From TrEMBL, chain A:
Pfam families: ABC2_membrane
UniProt entry keywords in alphabetical sequence: Cell membrane, Membrane, Transmembrane, Transmembrane helix, Transport
Protein name according to UniProt: Transport permease protein
One GO molecular-function entry: ABC-type transporter activity
Topology in the lipid bilayer: Multi-pass membrane protein
Family: Belongs to the ABC-2 integral membrane protein family.
Ranges where the ABC transmembrane type-2 domain occurs: 19-248
Compartment list: Cell inner membrane; Membrane
Major location category of this protein: membrane
GO cellular component: a single term: ATP-binding cassette (ABC) transporter complex
Transmembrane segments: 21-43, 55-82, 140-161, 167-188, 200-219, 225-245
NCBIfam families found in the cross-reference section: PRK15066.1
InterPro entries according to UniProt: ABC-2_transport_permease, ABC2_TM, ABC2_TM_bact-type, ABC_2_transport
Originating organism: Modicisalibacter muralis
TrEMBL record, chain B:
GO molecular function: ATP binding; ATP hydrolysis activity
Domain ABC transporter: 5-234
One of the Pfam families matching this protein, by short name: ABC_tran
Native source species: Modicisalibacter muralis
Protein known as: ABC-2 type transport system ATP-binding protein
Length: 253, 308
């Protein structure tokens, strides 16, 4: 394994994040804080506790998930789209490096960034609401698995996209709506019965529910189902990435 | 001795159905400068792209330093450095960072002394802290070369290295290439400037419409390319070439107003002085003259025609 190359890609990507600190860290933190102010303080004060948890605290896992998904996807998709767009990908293709090593470098960096961001948001949330984490190890496991899975999805989008519009399309039209409708800000129990059933087809529900369970021990769906869902997602993404490199789809004619 | 590059029966058909390469066989000797000449769209870049791993071959095999570029790609690619035709660089990285990144990508441990030497050789040392976006086109080209040399390759591909580069930089680059060759690096360059091939290459390959038409020593090919034509615009039309001029290789235009003399610049005597003397003696006046060298493009066309 060309560890040196993996390390080079990883540090290169992390350096890019440091250079764009304002947009990679500060802006997600600010927008999350806004959610706390609006939902937690303004609206939350009028909503009674949900399953014994104050509304402000209840939305913390959902908010972290929202940021985790969007940031993982946008980090990883941009990281691989840009070399394709500028043409510098020639160097990756001509280097003595295996495809899986390219993926580890880029996805690893993207996932690291969103995990760090998730933890920063968690710390920020601590300023607004009292936090308790019932299962810290599970919390970390969900955080890492979700970040890796969605960074892989971002990587796939970055390879599939042939322009900046498509790069924005999936995060904007699919991931954000699914997250908003995925129980980030409410419990599925609060929905009418029909919508409760429909919601179960939304994969993000399982992620948010599992993550929230790791905080408060409450969940909309069973924790096993949540974990399975993430693993199914992860497998799907890995399969797609493998297929992309096997066929050279959009990178190697 | 094992060749640096060994290409056998290589073909490439793109998904669009366009056949870019047709059964290419080619050997590049170790330590030589090999120039691949050909008109635009001839398949030069496709050939290089396959050898370097940017494009999948449809058929055939390529060995780089004895290593198969598909099955043993790690060993093969470690030996190869590529300077692409397009000026593709990151924008916000510094020169130092991007060149160091390239070295790491090729699996080599950091070696600041080597990077420093490469940057100094390419007159980039003063710019090492500059962001790439602030560099001129010529400087970016140097950065691409520095990136390709960062991992100390044994085989260097230069795809149109001097396209859009000013004269001074072109000379500098030729100098760098010569130094590399002296250090034992095999160099393959593509170009459509005959001057460049003439200046640099040991051997020349000509590619046209996806086929290698010839591979020859430079001296031999230059001899072929060296043919020139002298055209005389006559004061008064001639009906035929006078017998006294029969010794010269002359052709008369249909309307009799132009005489064309074909000669070889590589020979010691071009025969022009003798021709002009004989013309004078025959009382043939001319009002103008010009000489032209058959262009490389024309030679390609002729070569292709000969083959068909």
């Amino acid at each position: 394994m060309n560890l040196q190359a993996v390390r080079s890609i990883y540090t290169f990507e992390m350096a890019r994040a440091r250079r764009t600190l304002l947009q990679s860290v500060v802006s997600p933190v600010i927008s999350t804080s806004l959610y706390f102010v609006v939902f937690g303080a303004a609206i939350g004060s009028r909503i009674s506790h949900i399953e014994g948890i104050s509304y402000g605290a209840f939305i913390v896992p959902g908010l972290i998930m929202l940021m985790l998904l969007t940031q993982s996807v946008s980090n990883a998709s941009f990281a691989i789209f840009f070399p394709r767009f500028s043409g510098t990908i020639y160097e990756l293709l001509s280097a003595p490096i295996a495809y899986y090593e390219i993926v580890i470098g880029y996805v690893g960096a993207a996932a690291t960034k969103s995990i760090v961001l998730g933890l920063i948001i968690l710390a920020t949330a601590g300023f607004f609401v009292p936090l308790e984490i019932a299962h810290p190890l599970w919390m970390l496991a969900f955080l890492v698995l979700t970040a890796v899975t969605f960074s892989l999805l971002g990587f796939i989008i970055g390879i599939w996209a042939d322009g900046f519009e498509k790069l924005q399309l999936v995060p904007l039209l699919i991931i954000t709506p699914l997250t908003f409708l995925g129980g980030s800000f409410y419990s599925v129990d609060m929905l009418p019965p029909v919508w409760q059933t429909v919601t179960l087809f939304n994969p993000v529900v399982y992620l948010v529910s599992g993550f929230r369970w790791s905080f408060y021990g409450i969940s909309d769906v069973s924790v096993t189902a949540s974990l399975l869902m993430i693993l199914v997602f992860l497998t799907l993404c890995l399969g797609l990435v493998a297929w992309i490199f096997k066929t050279g789809y959009r990178i190697k004619p | 001795m094992q060749p640096a590059i060994h290409v056998s029966n290589l073909s490439k058909t793109y998904d669009s159905g366009f056949q870019a390469l047709k059964n290419i066989d080619l050997e590049v000797r170790r330590g030589e400068i090999f120039a691949l000449l050909g008109p635009n769209g001839a398949g030069k870049t496709t050939l290089i792209s396959i050898i370097c791993g940017l494009v999948n071959p449809s058929e055939g095999t390529v060995l780089a330093d004895g290593h198969d570029i598909v099955n043993d790609y790690r060993a093969a690619r470690e030996k190869i450095g590529l300077v692409p035709q397009e000026l593709t660089t990151d924008a916000f990285e510094t020169v130092w960072a991007t060149v160091s990144f390239s070295r790491g990508l090729f699996g080599k441990p950091a070696n600041p002394a080597h990077i420093e030497k490469v940057l100094k050789d390419l007159a980039l040392w003063d710019k090492r802290h500059n962001r790439l976006i602030t560099l001129s086109g010529g400087m970016k080209r140097r950065v691409l070369i520095a990136k390709a040399l960062s991992h100390e390759p044994q085989i260097l591909f230069l795809d149109e290295p001097t396209a859009g580069v000013d004269v001074e930089l072109r000379r500098d680059m030729w100098e760098v290439v010569r130094l590399l060759r002296e250090s034992g690096v095999t160099i393959i360059l593509t170009t459509h400037y005959i001057e460049e091939a003439e200046e640099m290459a040991d051997r020349i390959g000509v590619i046209s419409r996806g086929e290698i038409i010839l591979v020859e020593d430079k001296a031999e090919l230059m001899h072929k390319l060296g043919r020139k034509q002298l055209t005389l615009h006559l004061q008064y039309p001639l009906e035929r070439i006078p017998a006294t001029l029969g010794a010269h290789d002359l052709a008369l235009a249909e309307d009799g107003t132009e005489l064309t003399y074909t000669y070889d610049t590589q020979e010691e005597r071009t025969g022009i002085t003798g021709l002009l003397g004989d013309l004078n003696a025959a009382g043939i006046d001319f009002k103008d003259l010009h000489t032209r060298q058959s262009s490389l493009e024309e030679i390609f066309v002729n070569l292709v025609r000969e083959r068909q």
